[in-house]
UniProtKB/TrEMBL annotation:
Residues 25-183 form the Pectinesterase inhibitor domain. One of its GO terms (molecular function) is pectinesterase inhibitor activity. SMART domains: PMEI (SM00856). Belongs to the PMEI family. InterPro entries: Invertase/methylesterase_inhib (IPR035513), Pectinesterase_inhib_dom (IPR006501), PME_Inhibitor (IPR051955). One of its GO terms (biological process) is plant-type cell wall modification. This is Pectinesterase inhibitor domain-containing protein. It comes from Cucumis sativus (Cucumber). It holds the Pfam family PMEI. Residues 1-21 form the signal peptide. Keywords: Signal. It comes from the Eukaryota.
Length: 192
């Protein structure tokens, strides 16, 4: 009985060490790939919790970065929508929020398209280039949408909590999308 218990404990120790080494490899992979991102620390932070999914797979890394970007954009859309329901908004704030809702909605749509388009990528070089080009275009457009939303709050007339809250969210989404685009571009470059 003692031998069985010792053998079981030894086996569990080996499995734990192997799992740690595997996850450490995935974490190193993420850090390595994120070093080329626009915001490397944010890239690592936003993707590290998915290391067991990403493993050491470049395509899975890109898919996860897109999914994280989409999640951030959806959260921001919900946040902006809630702000539009506040009473006491200035007419210019309400207009800026309405425009921002539209822009963030476009971002969500484009990121959704990108996630779906990446799933269509197959082995042929021509097919890969077509689909990845679409992904790059839509993700770039998504970043533009976010910047357009932020531009709607330009000027001192809109200074205040609404402006700072929205801008903070938009900066976060834009940075996560920028990182995803960097990873997509690097992935495309390495597959060419």
């Amino acid at each position: 009985m003692a031998k069985s218990l010792s053998l079981l404990l030894l086996l569990l120790s080996i499995l734990t060490i192997s799992a740690s080494a595997f996850n450490g490899g995935a974490s190193s992979f993420i850090k390595s790939k994120c070093s080329a991102a626009t915001y490397p620390d944010l890239c690592v932070q936003s993707l590290s919790s998915f290391s067991s999914t990403i493993q050491r797979n470049p395509r899975q890394l890109v898919q996860t970065a897109l999914a994280v970007s989409l999640s951030h954009a959806q959260s921001t859309r919900s946040f902006v929508w809630k702000l539009t329901k506040f009473s006491g908004l200035k007419p210019r704030e309400r207009a800026a929020l309405k425009d921002c809702m539209e822009e963030v909605g476009d971002t969500v749509d484009r990121l959704n398209k990108s996630v779906e388009e990446l799933k269509r990528v197959s082995g042929s070089k021509k097919d890969f280039q077509w689909h990845i080009s679409n992904v790059e275009t839509w993700v770039s457009a998504a970043m533009t949408d976010e910047n357009t939303c932020s531009d709607g709050f330009a000027g001192s007339a809109l200074n205040g909590r609404i402006k700072s809250s929205v801008r903070g969210r938009i900066v976060d989404v834009t940075r996560v999308i920028s990182n995803a685009l960097s990873l997509i571009n690097k992935y495309a470059e390495n597959q060419s």
